[in-house]
Amino acid sequence: MNAKHDSHVIVRFPPSPTGYVHIGNVRTLLFSYLFAKKHGGRIIFRSEDTDRARSKREYESANLDDLAWLGLSWDEFHRQSERKDIHQTYLEKLVGEGKAYLSKEESKLTPGETAEVVRLKNPGKIITFVDEIRGEITFDTTELGDIVIARAIDDPVYHFAVVADDSDMGVTHIIRGEEHISNTPRQILIQEAIGAPRPVYAHLPIILAPDRKKLSKRHGATSLHEYRETGYLKEALTNFLALIGWSPGTDEEFFTLPELVERFDFGGIQKSAGVFNIDKLLWFNREYVKKIPETDFKALAAHRLPERITSLLSEVEHAGRFERLLPTIQDRTTILADISRDAEAGEYDFAFFAPNPPTATLAWKKDPSPTVVLPRLEKLAGIIGALPSFPTADEAKEAVWEYAEQEGRGEVLWPLRVALSGREKSPDPFTLIYILGRDEALRRIAAARAALVV
RNA sequence: GGCCCUAUCGUCUAACGGUUAGGACGGAGGCUUUUCAAGCCUUAAAUCGGGGUUCGAUUCCCCGUAGGGUCACCA
C-alpha cells in the first residue's frame, strides 16, 4: 500500500449501546483499530442507538470506558440518534427522485396500527462485491424485494442509517463480522441509490463457542465488561483476541498492542470461524500476570484481599509479611479474581493468623506417634532459632536441609510445614519461614508441640 | 428450506504445488525442595470424502458431506 492510499483510511467503531459490548465485537473493533493505526487512518466511534427502546446511555458510557481501558482509541465520536436530520434529508431526496416511496402499511412493530414506511425501489440486479478476505461474493438482490429503509420518513432503519453515515463520514473500510455478509448487497443497493462510493469490505470470521454455536451467556462471560471485572488483563485480552482469526504467519504468539499494529494485515486473517478457547485466554492471562512488576501487583492484590486481612496491614509486622507473601500470591494467580477467591478460602491466612485450632491432627498424619514428631519439632526449633530474624527461603532451606535428609525429607518437612501453616496444602516450609520470620515460626512450632503433648 | 461463507491435531493456527505436515493451549507420562500450586522434560494427536489438473497436491478446480451465517419496520 502506498502512502497516498494510507492517508485515506477511515474506519468506524459501531457498537450498539443496547448492552455491554460483546467480546466478539471487541475482536472486530480491535482489528479495525489495528488496521487504521497501521495505515495512519482515522477511527470514528459511532454509537448506533437508533433503537430508542433498547439503547441506554449507561451502556454507551460503559462501552466507551471499557474499550478505552482495553487500549483502543478513536478520533471522533458520534451518536447516530443525533443525526436523524441528515438521514431524513437523504430519505427525502430518494423519495423526491423516485428511488424510494412512502407506503402505508400495518406496522410490524405494533400490529393494528398503520405506519407510513419508506421502501427502496429494488432495481433487481445481481450485486458482486469484493471482500478483502474472501474475494468476490455475488448475490441476486431480486429476492430482497423493495426493502424497508425507514419506519417513517424521520425514523431510518439500521441499514439505511449505516449506509448514510458511512458515506457522510467518508468511511473507506468497513471491517465487521461475517454475519454481515448477507447484509452487504442490500446496503450496496442503498449506497447506489444515494450515490455513495463503495467502501472496501472486510468480513471477519466470527467467534464461536466450544459447541460451535453462537457465543452466548450460557457459555460464560460474553462481554468485555465482565472480563475486565473478573480481573483479566488487557494485555492478555488483546493478545488472545488478536490470535483468533489472525496469525502473524510465524510461531510467535506474544504481542503488545503496538506490535500488533505493526504486524497486522488482512493477509493473515483466517476465513473460517474460530472457537473461543477459554483455556488459552487463561494461559495468556497467567503469562501476563507473571510479568506484572511487584509494586504494581501489590496494589492489585491489596485491593482484592478480604477485610479481615487488609485491616491488619497497618501494623508493621503484618505489612512485612504481606510484602513477603506477594510473590507467592502472584505465583498462584491466573486471573485477578483468584486472589480474592483464594484469600477468602483461607489460602493466605497462614501469613497473618497463627494456625488455630492446634495442628495436632495434621501433624500426626505422617506419623501417628507424637513421641516421634515432638523431638523433631524440637530439633527444628533449635535449627531455626539459630537463623537471622528474617532469613531468606534459601537460608532456611540450607539450615534445615541436612537434618531433613538425615531423617527423611517428608518426616521432617511435613510436620514443619503443617506446624507453620496449619494446613494440608500450602507453600513449602522454607517459603513459610521466609514470610513469617524466625520468631513467628518459632512461636508456631512451640504451639504445635504444645498441642501434640495434650 | 433458499441464498451466502467455510473446512489442517480436541482448540487457536503454520506450511501461499515438493516438509519426517511445524508451533501454542489443553491432554497423557515423568522430574523437582516426598503437600498444593508453579516450573522443567517427554509424548499422543490433524490435512472431511470422492473425482479431476499436475511429474507431484494440505495447497488449484468440480461434486458431495459437515459446520456456520442470513433470510425484520433489531442492530
Q: Nutshell version of this structure?
A:
This protein is of the alpha/beta class and 454 residues long.
Topology:
Blueprint lengths: L2 H4 L3 E4 L9 H16 L3 E6 L9 H14 L5 E4 L4 H13 L3 E7 L7 E7 L5 E6 L3 E6 L7 E5 L2 E2 L1 H11 L4 E5 L6 H11 L5 E5 L2 E2 L15 H7 L3 H9 L14 H7 L10 E2 L2 H13 L3 H11 L2 H4 L5 H16 L5 H8 L15 H5 L5 H16 L7 H15 L1 H13 L7 H8 L1 H16 L1
Parallel strand pairs: 1-2, 2-3, 10-11, 12-13
Antiparallel strand pairs: 4-5, 5-8, 6-7, 8-9
Helix pairs in contact: 2-9, 4-5, 5-6, 8-10, 11-13, 16-18, 16-20, 17-18, 17-19, 18-19, 19-20
This protein binds one RNA strand of 75 nucleotides through strand 5, strand 7, strand 8, helix 5 and strand 13.
Structure description:
Among the domains are: 217-290, Glutamyl-tRNA Synthetase, domain 2, CATH 1.10.1160; 294-351; 360-453, Arc Repressor Mutant, subunit A (Orthogonal Bundle). Helix content is 48%, strand content 13%. It contains 20 helices and 13 strands. The chain has a four-stranded antiparallel β-sheet with strand order 4-5-8-9. The protein has a three-stranded parallel β-sheet with strand order 1-2-3, covered by helices on one side. A hairpin with a 3-residue loop joins strand 6 and strand 7 (135-140). Mean pLDDT is 92; it is low at 1-6. The chain binds one RNA strand of 75 nucleotides through strand 5, strand 7, strand 8, helix 5 and strand 13.
